[in-house]
Amino acid sequence: MKRRxxxxxxxxxxxxxxxxxxxxxxxxxxxxxxxDFLSVEPRVAVEAPAGKVEVIEFFWYNCPHCNAFEPMxxxxxxxxxxxxxxxxxxxxFQAEFIPQQRLYYAxxxxxxxxxxxxxxxxxxxxxxxxLSKPEAIVNWVVKNGVDKTKFVDQFNSFAVATKATxxxxxxxxxxxxxxxxxxxxxxFYVDGELSRGMDRALKVVESLVxxxxxxx
Length: 216
What we know:
Blueprint: E1 13-15, E2 30-32, E3 38-39, E4 53-59, H1 64-77, E5 84-90, H2 98-109, H3 113-126, H4 134-143, H5 148-155, H6 158-173, E6 181-184, E7 188-191, H7 192-195, H8 198-213
Parallel strand pairs: 4-5
Antiparallel strand pairs: 1-2, 3-7, 4-6, 6-7
Helix pairs in contact: 1-3, 2-5, 2-6
């Protein structure tokens, strides 16, 4: 989903690497800066430990394209090499997105993202539940077995509010144009429009990880 609906390119060419046999991209293609991905300047600070390459997924729970991408992404993440540090960042293109940012970071604080990420998408897109407001979010997580006091404490915490603010800063630093999209090592930005499909976007990311890994 494009940001308008709710970087100048360089001459770098990246060859295809890759580790996922499940994704079907052109095996002999070359990925070009400004066409398939964008270089990010100035570079963005990363949270990855030393020796690891950070990959970020920018997403929004209400986005139908993020919902469609989630199963593909989950399968891809399970195959990541050990030197890839993956994390999700919920975007807030508008103030109305902030409750869902807090939902994600509250689940993260409770160690429940892996259990609930797909469930949240299913509730919104499969069951057509409105999880855009804090009260509805709290009611839903409680119905799904989460301790209300623990969740509300995290949802309203300074730590979660800070993470939501940092997420918005990060999306702006990467100049996120829409979701789902991906950031690599604070240096590169990839989305479905640039790469002409999210399956191909993952292949572009694999190649960019190889570029970073080899110090290019």
